[in-house]
Design goal:
Low-confidence stretches: 282-286
Number of domains: 2
Distance between the termini: 70 Å
Largest sheet: 6 strands, mixed
Strand order of the largest sheet: 4-5-6-1-12-11
Shape: globular
Order of helices and strands: HEHEEEHEEHHHEHHEEHHHEEEEEH
Structural class: alpha+beta
Number of strands: 14
Length: 439
């Protein structure tokens, strides 16, 4: 028996009706002229079946946390389909299609994922949009699934015997054992609270975030746009100022949001950016699940890219904690209590701790293939929720650095302004790492 993890339950607790907690990964493939949807669907189906969690659905049992059981109706037609791109040749059309698919709620009577091939992109390209509910996995788990579906990926894990619904008394005994184990780990819980406090409110992350138009309750629509940079250029600029690729990303996000806010007649001077922090430590096993905490950092929005990057690198360096991702379990408990009291949505719609979220995933350094077709690009798309109108997700793959902005277009109608500002900030930061021109 495997129950849904405590941190996974947090994703369910904050899953608002209009905005599902679903994430998307987009693989852009160079397939040429002989591509067949039927063949590609068959290859993908065989590979996703090797990941047990993708064959399982979540069942609420009334005794303890929900459990994962194999779906007796698991079938290719319920999970893999295709759509045609409505605007061939438009670079942004694919990401808009992916954002729309991500916002379509997945049926709860089956495993919580859907794969959609997007055709008609032009240039001999086809995309695969993989949408999963966040309760299944975090970004590191998504990388593990990616490793399973590409050519030459990890082999199928051993036991294929079906996991059925546990009996009533088995559920009761397991719930009792879980409570006993929790009581035995009281000391660990106290240490976890200290680690969580250090990650969430320590140093420059404490206090309320500036009150800006970035934080208003969101509606049900989402749009996305992707901005690109060369990974080696970003890395060179980071190293020139004693920082990391993540520091460059956060600095560019802060600068772009500063430009956006100034265009709206606001200038807070600083923002609180919540950085996703993985607590996996090593690559996840087949159980996947969520082990991600948040590290809020208070960063400047100054127009000067060099001065801002120096400051951001120093702030993040000072905020790194002893246990990365240590806040995950404690945050999960707080949100579960809020959900039980019917306050989860209100908490998310009125929070004053962060202005935006930033996720940065490091993908493969070398190009991979799927059924012989080269995977040219990989894009990650994160959901927005509560009163955070704009979020950012970065993915590095084969020398390319893709940063995708997801926004509520009704609360952020000037998304093109933000995308242009982020593009300019990344370009300005890249120039900081270039050697001076010779006379």
């Amino acid at each position: 028996m495997e129950r849904v993890g405590a941190v996974d339950l947090m994703e369910l607790a904050i899953d608002a009706e209009a905005t599902p907690r679903q994430v998307a990964g987009v693989l852009v493939m160079e397939v040429g002229t002989g591509w067949s949807f039927e063949r590609a669907r068959g290859v993908l189906w065989e590979r996703v079946r090797s990941v047990r969690r993708l064959r399982q659905r979540m069942v609420r049992v009334g005794v303890g946390r929900p459990v994962w059981v194999d779906d007796p109706g698991f079938a290719v037609g319920r999970h893999i389909g295709w759509v045609a791109c409505p605007a061939p040749g438009d670079e942004g059309a694919l990401v808009r299609v992916a954002a729309g698919l991500m916002n379509e709620r997945l049926p709860v009577d089956r495993p919580l994922w859907r794969a959609t091939f997007v055709t008609g992109l032009g240039g001999g390209r086809v995309a695969l949009v993989f949408v999963v509910h966040h309760v299944l996995m975090d970004g590191v788990g998504g990388l593990a699934v990616l490793a399973r579906i590409v050519d030459g990926g990890a082999s199928a894990a051993g036991d294929d015997r079906p996991v059925g619904m546990p009996g009533r008394w088995e559920l009761v005994r397991d719930a009792v054992r879980e409570r006993v184990r929790a009581l035995a780990r009281v000391g660990d819980g106290i240490r976890a609270l200290r680690d969580a406090r250090a990650e969430v409110v320590g140093g420059s992350g404490g206090g309320k975030a500036p009150l800006t138009s970035l934080n208003v309750p969101t509606g049900g629509r989402r749009e996305a746009v992707t901005v690109w940079a060369g990974l080696e250029d970003v890395r060179r600029a980071a190293h020139a100022y004693g920082g990391t690729v993540n520091d460059v990303l956060v600095s560019a996000v802060a600068g772009a949001l500063g430009t956006l806010l100034r265009s709206r007649g606001e200038d807070p001077g600083e923002l609180v950016v919540a950085i996703s922090v993985s607590g996996h430590g090593t690559a996840p096993d087949e159980r996947l699940g969520n082990r991600v905490g948040v590290l809020p950092v208070r960063v400047p929005t100054w127009p000067d890219a060099e001065r801002r990057l120096r400051r951001v690198a120093a702030v993040i360096r000072a905020r790194k904690t002893r246990v990365p991702g240590g806040s995950a379990g404690v945050l999960a408990g707080a949100f579960r209590v809020g959900a039980a009291l019917g306050l989860a949505r209100r908490i998310m719609d009125t929070q004053r701790r962060v202005n935006t979220f930033v996720t940065n995933l490091r993908g493969p350094a070398e190009r991979h293939t799927f059924d012989g077709a080269a995977i040219a690009d990989v894009i990650a798309i994160s959901p927005t929720t509560g009163n955070v109108t704009v979020v950012f997700a970065a993915f590095s793959y084969a020398g390319r650095f893709a940063v995708t902005i997801t926004a509520d277009p009704d609360r952020c109608p000037d998304l093109p302004v933000l995308a242009g500002a982020l593009r300019a900030e990344l370009a300005a930061t890249v120039r900081l790492g270039q050697p001076p021109a010779r006379l």
